[in-house]
Amino acid sequence: MPKPSATKKPAAKRPQKPPRRGVADAAQVASGKAARSRRTQARILDAAEELFSHHGIYGVSIRDIADAAGVDTALLHYHFANKDGIYEAVLLRRAGEINTARTRSLDDYALACAGKPSIEGVVRAYLQPVFERLRNGGRGFNNFAALIALANNTELWGGGTVKEYFDPSVQRLIELLRLAMPKAREADLYWGYQFLSGALTLSYSRNDRIKWLSHGQCRANDYAAIEPRLVEWCTAAFRALGARR
Amino acid sequence: MPKPSATKKPAAKRPQKPPRRGVADAAQVASGKAARSRRTQARILDAAEELFSHHGIYGVSIRDIADAAGVDTALLHYHFANKDGIYEAVLLRRAGEINTARTRSLDDYALACAGKPSIEGVVRAYLQPVFERLRNGGRGFNNFAALIALANNTELWGGGTVKEYFDPSVQRLIELLRLAMPKAREADLYWGYQFLSGALTLSYSRNDRIKWLSHGQCRANDYAAIEPRLVEWCTAAFRALGARR
DNA sequence: CCCCAAATTCATGATTCGATCAATAACCAC
DNA sequence: GTGGTTATTGATCGAATCATGAATTTGGGG
Questions:
Q1: Any CB–CB contact under 8 A between B135 and chain A?
Q2: Residues 105-134 of chain B whose Cβ lies under 8 A from any Cβ of chain A
Q3: Pick from A150, A196, A158: which is nearest to B212 by CA?
Q4: Is B59 helix (H, G, I), strand (E, B) or coil?
């Protein structure tokens, strides 16, 4: 019983709460009650992010999160109403940021190429923001990415709230690819994205099978090795797919 | 708490049990106690396979499986000792079959091409058995595939028992690719497999986001559309990756 | 300094979960 | 049939789960 705990939402008793400013800025050392509260929420979300990314939403109990964050379980309910609320908050905290970055990167490239995009340029512009954050975003972003990878193979994905955050950047990607491959069929662009997405997703997942398969030659999260190869891979593949008669 | 319930395995009190012949053959209508028992186990595994593929191992309770299979929960413990036992049995039931089929398909191709494999031929031979089963294997195999997709983004994947079933066919794939691309670097072959694997995995997962992205033009599990495109995609991509200086 | 509201903890309830044990039903050998 | 073994059920335990409401602390405004 997957427990659709969202059905009877306990009404999130959290009172009014100031305009709900970004919860994300954890490192802040400001004082004051609100700042302290925001820091606590960030600690909770950090813990939840890590645990969820390892064991999935059903593999983690509210107690686990509370213990990892060093607070009482009731506090989680106070801030996020219920478990689903925590899960959603974890996703929303970063989903917007990464996707606006993607869209911006694509827009920048569209300008720079003066209306004549290349497949390689588009693919690179789409991938760059993620890999930059995977390399420099700290453990937090890597946990988030692994969680996305986990959630990505679920039916719930795509219909949820996250959809509206991720979709625009993908549509922008498709748009530019259409310009780069005018002869390609519409459907092939989407299938290409699907294949790209699968490869990318597996790249930042927690699956390190390649390490064993390659007898240690490749390490799963060696993003410096992955990014250029994935760009080459998808570029050539899109070109072939676009040449279908 | 991810509950490593495998730690104290309740010793599977199931007594001696005949030589443990293939549990897989469910449709059998043979009579007799043993046959009946095997059919029951198959029903249990079918139910577990479906539920696990939807909600993951932690999202399903033993009671859920028992209800879906129409038996008492105690019976699950009798046959499979504990929850992990059920999960493992679900995986093992099909893992061997699909991977020997893959290896056989690759071996057949290696013979047919007389020592001069092409990238496309190798990729096609590797993918063919899966897609054939996805199209004709009934709901059972599709559930299994979706479960694999789910498990594939977990750290536990690769170290488990399943590793030994999946690895040989992959190594055979790499071998043949090495012949097809003599100049390619070793590491690039493994990275290429990683990208292929990600795309393939997403293809049979329960993620139907492409349907929405493409406004209905593409349907996630339209394997007749996916297989040829994925072959083209990977072929071109491997060729490019193998041409790295 | 004091009070109010927000943030946090403490104690607890109801439910579900995995697992076990004894009891029954089905089957087979004799 | 009868006896013995295997397969299956019924009842139940203890632990863990999500959630709630009452207490307690914390911080800032008057």
A1: no
A2: none
A3: A158
A4: helix
> Which among A150, A170, A240 has CB closest to B236?
A240
| Shortest CA gap B197–chain A (Å) | 7
Output the pTM of the full model: 0.91
Query: What is the full DSSP assignment across B67-131?
Result: HHHTS-HHHHHHHHSSHHHHHHHHHHHHHHHHHHHHHHHHHHHHHHTTT---HHHHHHHHHHHHH
User: What are the residue ranges spanned by the domains of chain A?
Assistant: 93-242
What are B84-93's pLDDT values in tens digits?
999 999 999 9
The yes/no answer on whether domain B94-242 falls in CATH 2.40.100.10 is: no
Rounded average pLDDT over B206-210? 94
- Which residues 144-163 on B are within 7 A of strand D at the CB atom? none
CA distance B186 to B178: 8
For domain A93-242, say whether CATH 3.30.420.10 is its number.
no
User: Side chain identity at A104, as an amino acid letter?
Assistant: R
d(CA A11, CA A16): 13
| Contacts across the A-B interface (CB distance below 8 Å) | 211
Closest residue of chain B to A223, computed from CA coordinates: B191
